[in-house]
Write a structure and sequence with these properties.
Elements lengths: L3 H7 L5 E4 L8 E5 L9 E5 L4 E8 L2 E7 L7 E8 L3 E8 L11 E7 L5 E7 L10 E2 L6 E8 L5 E9 L2 E9 L7 E3 L13
Antiparallel strand pairs: 1-2, 3-4, 4-5, 5-6, 7-8, 8-9, 9-10, 11-12, 12-13, 13-14
């Protein structure tokens, strides 16, 4: 979660995390993720090694941390992307053993550092190295990209596109482990945004 307390009280970053060992009935605050973390957290569990991976905004762009002790603590892995104005990163992981891309981590975000479009990254070595990044939206005025991985390894990403008085959802799919993508039919085309009353 975004953790302004630790940021202002001790300078330990703007991201915190809690852990539950009773199915979510209660949580224990584990403190801050670490100095340099900037919020907008995203966490996934990777079946290939049994570890949790935690992405958050970072002073240098998009940071990645890993937990090898069931989320009791997280250790810094490195930057997935370096950019001063990266925003709203979310992760997904291929957890299907039969997939040709089993274990691959995916991250999508809005790249305000470059062109304001949705960009995608992938890592096949548990976040140590990442692809250079590719834009997957055709235009800017987009936000809120959300990735999911199908059992066959296909990666789907959707986001909201704003355009004057029209709001559209856009969707792309990758069938080659994130190397390329193609547009899919939008579930919401040319929908007028809700009006304030």
């Amino acid at each position: 979660f975004n953790d302004s307390y630790h940021y202002y009280a001790s300078g330990d970053g703007f991201t915190g995390f809690s852990r539950s060992v009773d199915g979510g009935a209660s949580f224990t605050d584990q403190g801050a993720l670490g100095a340099g973390s900037g919020g907008d957290p995203s966490i996934v569990w990777r079946r290939a090694d049994g570890h949790f991976y935690f992405a958050a905004l970072h002073t240098d762009g998009l940071g990645l941390w890993r937990s090898t002790d069931d989320c009791q603590s997280f250790q810094w892995v490195g930057n997935a992307h370096v950019g001063f104005l990266d925003d709203k990163e979310l992760m997904a992981v291929d957890n299907a053993p039969s997939s040709p891309y089993y274990g691959r981590l995916y991250m999508v975000f809005t790249n305000f550092s470059s062109d304001g479009r949705i960009w995608a990254l992938s890592s096949s070595d548990a976040g140590v190295t990442w692809t250079g990044g590719i834009p997957i939206s055709a235009t800017d005025n987009v936000q809120g990209a959300w990735p999911v991985v199908a059992p066959n390894g296909d990666v789907w990403v959707s986001w909201v596109k704003f355009g004057g008085s029209v709001v559209t959802m856009e969707v792309v799919r990758s069938t080659d482990g994130g190397a390329s993508d193609q547009g899919e039919t939008s579930p919401a085309v040319n929908k007028a945004p809700p009006q304030n009353t």
